[in-house]
Amino acid sequence: MSRLRLTNQSYLPLIMLLAAFLRLWRLAAKPLWVDELYTAFYSLGKSLKEIPLGTLLPPERYWSLLADPGTPWQAAQAVTVHSNHPPLFFMAMNGWFQGMGISVWSMRAFAVLWGLVAVAGVFYLGRRVGGPKVGTLAALLMAVSPYGIYLSQEARHYSLAVAIAVFALSSWIALLQGDRSLRHWLSWIGLNALGLYVHYFYSFSLIAQWLVTISRLLWRRHRRAQTLSWLLAMGATLLLYLPWLSNALTHFQAEGGTNWLSQSTPIWQTVVLPWLQSLIAAVFMLILLPVEQVPLWVTITSALIMLGVFSLVLFQINRGWRLEPLLDLWSPLVSYGLVVFGLMLSITYGLGKDLTLAPRYFFMLYPAVTVVAALALVYRRQWVVVVVLVAGLVSQLLISYDLALLKSYLPGQIGRRLGADAQPTLVLIAPQRNSYRARALSYVLAIPSHANVQIAFTEPATTETWQPELTNSDKIPAEKSTLWLVEPQRQIPFPPKVVLSSQTCSLVGERIKTEGTGQQKYQCVVAAS
To answer: Is it the case that residue 445 has pLDDT exceeding 60?
Structure first.
């Protein structure tokens, strides 16, 4: 079988079309999840405290919360006060909303745009490192990677951070190679500063670039004359970040600022899980099959297939590594990747903040992994790339139809359940605390548009007969109706009976628990006078 023939830039438009198709296909099919709702509210200049309490409203009234964007400065204020992220992405999305309108599709399309920029950028990064063939293959790998598509299809800041990183790395490699034009210096400084304003984890990329650069300057004495230029560039980057530094420190010191990364697990899990989770992230960059909410035999079969495909491609990467003179532990991108991963593990084990907890946190490693894989595979047999293509296409097909990569608390499943009855339905949701408001709202927005449902956010129900406080009890149907009580992380039983105006509601069936969210169905009838 012939070897790869990727000799020029003419393939890039086709790769970009493939990347766009895979990222835009069924873009709005899945319901918004918690983090995307945070993105929406902060980008609009709002907070989740604007969700009304104690008032029965139809689903469309909750959708109206995602409207009327404020100014970019209001977006910056919202994310600074109510979140622990830097403001640039949210300000940019505010401007996107002003021009493109607000919908599930437009929210995610903004991330898709930057995902496509990243695909184009990794072509230039790969070309800079190893020539046009490497650039073309790197772009193809990122175009079909389920991990890259996932980062591009969520209304979050990861695809923008990756896009900035690939161009910053391109300028960095150019500078290391001796192409020290003013354009490369300015882009390296400016892009790295921008990255810090997009996501705090971008600092891993910056630190890795700096450490690798300093080590090369110290190791190769003839380059020490360049030290001043590099130090000035690093200092300029820090100066550009100074206006935000105090806010960043406040975010890290705030109560709950990084608590979501702290896990209480047995010691053996604390040691083993980061490595296992890192392996899962690496496999995800190549292939993803159904492993959640499926029978055990499907999970096992999918896991074996994924590990088999990953091992096959990894074996070919290893063979290519040994044959490629540009690949060794000292090469800039390899050193960069090792430092980024080392920083993640240092924080995980040293500070007890598990940065391997979710695959998306590996986004600063992703560009380097892609280009290194392209370098190792570029002179391998064509069937290797065919395997990668098929793995990516099959993965995206399964993800698009909600057969893989399900959100852990299943908002779509719960939303469909709440809107399933033909008769009038009332849904009372008790978020318990502010951190659950976005999760509760995601259930509401996942209710089918045709459902005859009224929803209210309320205080948690008692364990005895309960009568909720509603400001518009006149909206309660006069005829027979269905009631659902929904409460994330409810540990105590739901009440045996609920009183709603002129109706009395009795338990129907057993309590349902979906990934920690309790749901209890009731049948309501008009109370005897």
So the answer is: yes
Specify the residue for token string 């992405």.
89
- Distance of alpha carbon 263 from alpha carbon 284, whole angstroms: 22
* Domain's final residue, options 369, 400, 431: 400
Task: Compute the distance between CA of residue 207 and CA of residue 520 in angstroms, rounded to an integer.
Answer: 50
Q: Are 473 and 508 part of one and the same domain?
A: yes
**Do 24 and 129 share a structural domain?**
yes
- 206 found inside a domain: yes
Return d(Cα 37, Cα 46) in angstroms, integer. 11
Q: What is the DSSP letter of 426?
A: E
- The neighbouring-strand residues paired with 522 are 483, 507
What is the rounded CA–CA span in Å between residue 471 and residue 456?
10
Short-list 445, 466, 470, CA closest to 457? 470
What is the band of 222 on the pLDDT scale with cuts at 50, 70, 90? low
Please name which of 362, 339, 367, 332 lies closest in space to residue 163, comparing C-alpha atoms. 367
Residue 409 and residue 515 in contact, taking contact as beta carbons nearer than 8 Å? yes
Burial class (CB in 10 A: 0-12, 13-18, 19+), 282: middle
Domain shared by 319 and 417, yes or no: no
* Residue-by-residue DSSP string for 39-62: HHHHHHT--GGGS-SS--B-HHHH
Q: Are residues 384 and 288 in the same domain?
A: yes
Domain count, the chain: 2
- Which of 345, 310, 375 lies closest to 132 in space, CA to CA? 375
Q: How far is CA 96 from the centre of its chain?
A: 19
Q: What is the pLDDT of residues 232-278, one digit of tens each?
A: 999 999 999 999 999 999 888 875 555 555 566 778 788 899 999 99
- Distance, in Å, from the CA atom of 360 to the CA atom of 363, rounded to the nearest integer, reads 6
DSSP run (H or E) holding 296: helix 296-323
Query: Does 416 lie in the same domain as 357?
Result: no
Same domain as 520, residue 481: yes
pTM comes to: 0.93
Closest among 129, 205, 131 to 161, alpha carbons compared:
205
Domain match, 285 and 169 both = yes
Give the three-state DSSP class for 213: helix
Final residue of a structural domain among 357, 377, 400: 400
Q: Residue 187: which domain range?
A: 9-28+103-244+264-400
> In terms of domains, do 170 and 308 share one?
yes
Confirm whether 89 is domain-assigned: no
Would 55 be classed as within a structural domain? no
Q: Does 83 map to a domain?
A: no
pLDDT digits (tens, 9 = 90+) for 87-102: 999 999 999 999 999 9
Across 243-247, 473-477, 490-494, least confident range: 473-477
First-to-last alpha carbon distance for the chain, in angstroms, is: 84
What is the number of other CB atoms lying within 10 angstroms of the CB of residue 58? 16
